Amino acid sequence: GHVQLRPPQNVTLLSKDFDMILTWTPGEGSPPDVMYTVRYESQERVDKWIKVRHCKNIHRTFCNLTCVLPNFVKVRARVKAASGRFQSPWVESQFKEYHLDVELAPPVLHVNVEQKVIHVNASFPLPTCVESFSWMYDLNLWEAGSENKKQYKGIFRKNTVTIDTTALRGNYCLNARSSFQSIDFKHSKFSQPVCVLLNSKG
């Protein structure tokens, strides 16, 4: 009898923390030695499926396409399973566009306390292919326990923010979120707060 290899399921092109990743689950009853191959097509060249070198005959059930996919154009990916001489049909994901659909990660804050000032900058876990985009961040500063936050908006990620702390005394906290102005303004969740003790007599 002819053995049909079941196709991969739940094929999804998803964005997480600046990355674009194709994920799937094995088809029902897949043998343990099953391997997967991924290709993608862009809306600029429909029906031209492009090979992804690092996702050919792989055992894992995901493929990172972050710096493989072209920017500013909708793309989709497909995956098929193979085992021995059997192959499954291809299964396609939905179309996505990196800029519009990418999900941002919160930045990591670096806080340097000096006398009368604090210097704050943010680093982002960015893939090299999107380093040059105008990523920004919004910063909050507040006294621990207070709801009253001072906001610093739209700071370019390369810039350090210097805050005069002459008038501040006690425990102050900072957090930030990544933001990106494309067609649509989007931003990440806020990072975990970083708290520092300012101008305490001690």
From TrEMBL:
Coiled coil regions in record: none
Entry's Gene Ontology cellular component terms: plasma membrane
Pfam families in UniProt: Interfer-bind, Tissue_fac
Fibronectin type-III domain mapped to chain residues: 4-101
GO molecular function, one term: cytokine receptor activity
PROSITE patterns: FN3 (PS50853)
Annotated protein name in UniProt: INLR1 protein
Organism: Heliornis fulica (sungrebe)
Recorded name of the encoding gene: Ifnlr1
